[in-house]
Amino acid sequence: MADVVLHVKDVFKSFGGLRALNNVNLAIERGKTHAIIGPNGAGKSTLLNAIIGRLVPDSGSVTFEGDSITGLQPYEINQKGVVRVFQTPEIFPDLSLLQNVMIPVLAKREGSFRFNPFARLFEDKAVREEAMRMLEDVGLQDQSHREAANLSRGDKRRLEMAMGLVQRPRLLLLDEPTAGMSRHDTNRTIDLLQEVKARGLTKVIIEHDMHVVFSLADRITVLAQGTIICEGTPDEVRGNPKVQEAYLGG
Ligand code: ADP
Ligand code: MG
Prior knowledge:
Elements: E1 4-15, E2 18-29, E3 33-37, H1 44-52, E4 59-64, E5 67-68, H2 74-79, E6 82-86, H3 97-110, H4 118-121, H5 125-137, H6 153-165, E7 171-175, H7 183-197, E8 203-207, H8 210-216, E9 219-224, E10 227-232, H9 234-238, H10 241-249
Bound molecules: adenosine-5'-diphosphate and magnesium ion.
């Protein structure tokens, strides 16, 4: 039996009369990069939100490391090591890159940021060093004191990745990592994702860009209109006529 980290079982979710997820089943294997692709409106973001607890399925379950996480709050699921990055920019533009990477570590340690003065926390030497190592890992060490607002799109991705990785995820969910990017930034992001892939972390990538998916994924699940129409290796998926049809018809 494969070592499955995350199980999505018989999940349904409707918005009014619209079935966004229609009996979705998914098994994510440890150490693998699993892509979920599909045309716009297929239900990819809905599925991701059901995994991270931003929405609760109408029926069905999500199991992480053997425990049901269905209906848990997003922060509870995050504490178990399920970390999502991208889609909406979640960096702090007025802070330096280093401070940005320190925040997830401090937030975890402090439980909450609300009642603590930022400035003092940023002086924590151990956290600074940990954040600096992470910036080195993603190649941003020379810009550690720059304001995050001034970064290029590709470098913002790198920063967001550092903010995710510094949480030591057990499962990393990447939501459209190359959305809206130039070819140059897309290629840089693919390089970054390849580096992360080499660490053996378990990852789910939600992606629209086929080029990105086929160069990174071990397995691919194709969603169309809330239903899984195909699942397999990149080669299996590439040759599947249903996939062609969903993309061309969608
Ligand atoms: P994808 O990420 O694959 O583009 P989504 O999961 O965002 O697709 O959306 C799937 C379908 O559900 C779409 O038809 C979308 O309009 C609809 N939908 C998504 N979220 C909501 C919501 N909060 N309320 C109503 N409809 C929604
Ligand atoms: Mg989406």
